[in-house]
Amino acid sequence: MAEAHQAVAFQFTVTPDGIDLQLCHEALRQIYLSGLHSWKKRFIRFKNGVMTGVYPGSPGGFMVVVGAYLSYNKYNQLDPSQAVNSITRALLLSLPLSLHLSLPLAVGGVLVGTGLWVSIIFVMRNVLKCLLSWHGWMYVQHGSVSWSAKLWMVLVKVFSGRKPMLYSFQNSLPRLPVPPVKDTCRRYLESARPLMDDEQYARMEGLAKDFEKNLGPRLQWYLKLKSWWASNYVSDWWEEYIYLRGRGPIMVNSNYYAMDFLYVFPTSVQAARAGNAIHSIMLYRRKLDRAQIKPVPLCSAQWERMFNTTRVPGAETDVLQHVNDSKHIAVFHRGRFYKVWVFYDGRLLLPREIEQQMDRILNDQSEPAPGEAFLAALTAGARTPWANARVTYFSRGKNKQSLDAIEKAAFFVTLDDTQQRYDAGSPVASLTSYAKSLLHGQCFDRWFDKSFNLIIFKNGTMGLNAEHSWADAPIIGHLWEHVLSSDPKMSYTEEGHCCGEPHPNLPGPQRMQWDIPAEVRPLITSSLSVARTLAEDVDSHIIPFSDFGKGLIKKCRTSPDAFIQIALQLAHFRDKGKFCLTYEASMTRLFREGRTETVRSCTNETCAFVRAMLPGGLNFAECLKLLKDAAEKHQSLYRLAMTGMGIDRHLFCLYVVSKYLGEESAFLKEVLSEPWRLSTSQTPLQQVELFDLVRHPEYVSSGGGFGPVADDGYGVSYIIVGENLINFHISSKHSSPETDSHRFGGNIRQAMLDILALFQLDKKSNK
Questions:
Q1: pLDDT tens, 300-309?
Q2: DSSP of 527-578, one letter per residue?
Q3: Which residues are catalytic?
Q4: What are 348's strand-pairing partners?
């Protein structure tokens, strides 16, 4: 009970002699340090706000401009006081004679200099916006850089200022353009052609032309109006209707996962791995709060909700709840929930001190309260029952306090009782178990509503499970790269513990208290049943493809992404004997508040290549030509998607407007009801400088994955690691007779090898 006594700042008793007041100096000291920490954070945020607000200018630039202007006036004996308005001059005249003769010159100089500085900022910001609106650099041939691209890069660097911060580019980013309806309909029909017979295509062509002529222009007018008024005409509707209004489980269907190192196991001590990982994540949050993460000219808005964020369920739509700061994390172990403070003495806990806290939780032998063990299953099931239970049973008393502790935590941690790891002796089974554990676990040991869950397994392996609505995978991937790259630098003792010493007076974790009524337990059981049915249906397969990587693909003078996407089309046709609508995620963060766009990878050119590769098809030379045509077409579609000329987000927003207007469109309804039977995504390695894969090739990330989008389809995520490794994460459903993740994995491997063979690199090297 020592920590409970320390939490009380003062005690008093009433005696016949008066009031006996006893102050706890340690508690008062902690209150003082906590307040000091909060004020420092507020000051840093205020300073960052000022720096971002005047970007690409700076306070130093203000001093230079104003100083130079005053010096120029003094040298040329100019009087800028005419720029001071009459009110200011009247105030100056009330000053003593010795001051009001010279002060107007100084004040006028400062005011005019400030105006000049603001004008310079305005010009620089708009020039930078024009530069960032030019996307010609994307069309430069691979391996060469044109003079226009070189000049563009120099100008962007010049107009970006000396030290841009994370959010500095936000006000200089262009708005996402609204494509013409005619172009969107034309490109849609082009993407649909290989998936339809002549009769189906003729019918869809008629619907598209009717939409383009009649309803389309009216809907487009509203979208144009929104694009002028809002920062981004897509993102708010995409977040609300695609994510937050979904009433099904977010586990598997929406959340995704990220894995640990594939071949390296830094420590087998669970608490130690948690200590280093949690400390590293909190250091990243500090850099994020100070906007010190290295910026690029892309939208950074998604970073704002990485920490201290929870998806709160609602009856019809969920909401994202974000608090500015949180000094604790929520930890789950063996059915119990804990609140763990990560700050003490006004500073962040060191890794060894966090390990100490995790050890206390692991050594706690207490039993879960009635209903507590499976409570988190509510976040794994359907959203409406969880929303109703939350309002009815978790809106008051100790339940509300404990729920607040979870929802306002920086993030959620699970100390998992299972052991997961890549096993060279059983690679397929071990990676399948690992992926499924990260994706859904036991359905009650992850708080799926949190922005992300850090999962530490019993043998020291770790991973992430991330909620999707607040941001896309590259954002959480940036954090995960920081954590993985920091782990070897923090190091461990020979026994596997974090370096350093435990804290002698550190208050222990606080066990959360619950009073879960008997009426809510059937709801928990029902959600758990729904979640387990969904989890057991997931057919997962991970392939560390090490036959070759981007090193050899580059020698083929082909885009690695296009190479892989075409291989996926070939593999899918061999797997199912037909083509399907294919989703490849592309980012639109070149624009303000941009998120994603779809690249429809199943094209006429790709289908022609796939048919040529079938038995009895064309020869090597003809197949190679078709492959290059398909790769060029894929690159063209990717560029269009990244530059705001994709078709799917535009069609989605037109559909939303039609619903608001009460208009029915057979064309839009049919387009948006088409299932994505092959959903793919590349996980980019963004901070290459953090990993020296030449000297330490073993420090490779396994990447991450997601659940299948369609009941009879595949989900494929892949990460290109270094020069010689590509990791594929494949998912489907056992319940579908059409799919088999392991069979599809074999087809992907063979397709990759068959496409590489077309280039006959072995013969070229012999020559």
A1: 999 999 999 9
A2: HHHHHHHHHHTEEEEEEEE-S--HHHHHHTTS-HHHHHHHHHHHHHHHHHSS
A3: 468
A4: 343
Is 171 inside any structural domain? Answer: no
One domain for residues 27 and 110:
no
pLDDT of residue 74: 62
Is the Cβ–Cβ distance between 353 and 506 less than 8 Å? yes
Distances (CA, A) of 554 to 143, 601, 709, 723: 10, 20, 31, 9
Listing DSSP states for 655-691 in one string gives HHHHHHHT---HHHHHHHH---SEEEEE-----GGG-
Pair 580, 677: CB distance under 8 Å: yes
* Residue 305 amino acid letter: R
Residue 228 lies in a domain: yes
Name the average pLDDT for the chain: 88
Assess whether 527 and 579 both reside in one domain. Answer: no
Q: Which two tokens stand for residue 62?
A: 């203000």
Looking at residue 332, what DSSP letter applies?
E
Confidence of residue 101 (pLDDT cuts 50, 70, 90): very low
SS3 418: coil
* Segments in 267-396 forming alpha helices (H): 270-289, 351-362, 383-393
| Strands 256-259 and 704-706, bridge-based pairing | antiparallel
Q: Is the dihedral of CA 191, 192, 198, 203 positive or negative?
A: negative
DSSP for residue 379: G
Q: Which tokens is 636 given? A: 């063209």
Q: Is the dihedral of CA 523, 524, 529, 534 positive or negative?
A: positive
pLDDT digits (tens, 9 = 90+) for 652-699: 999 999 999 999 999 999 999 999 999 999 988 888 778 877 777 778
Task: Give dist(CA 139, CA 639) in Å, integer.
Answer: 8
Domain that holds residue 389: 250-536
Question: Which residues are bridge partners to 463 per DSSP?
Answer: 259, 455
Q: List the alpha helices (DSSP H) in 77-193.
A: 86-93, 97-100, 103-132, 147-159, 181-192
The pLDDT tens digits for 161-186 are 778 888 888 889 999 999 999 999 99
**Same domain assignment for residues 372 and 482:** yes
Number of domains in the chain: 5
8 Å CB contact between 95 and 103: yes
- Residue 88 CB-density burial (10 A; 0-12 exposed, 13-18 middle, 19+ buried): middle
Q: For residue 327, is it within any domain? A: yes
- How far, in whole angstroms, is CA 439 from its chain's centroid? 16
In a domain, 19, yes or no: yes
**Do the beta carbons of residue 657 and residue 224 sit within 8 Å?**
no
Phi-psi region of 677 (alpha: psi -120 to 50; beta: other; left: phi over 0): alpha
- 45 and 105 share a domain? no
Do both 519 and 558 map to the same domain? Answer: no
Question: What angle do helix axes 604-612 and 620-642 make, rounded to 10 degrees?
Answer: 160
Q: Compute the average pLDDT of residues 568-587.
A: 97
- Is the predicted pLDDT of residue 19 greater than 90, yes or no? no
744 and 681 both lie in a single domain: yes
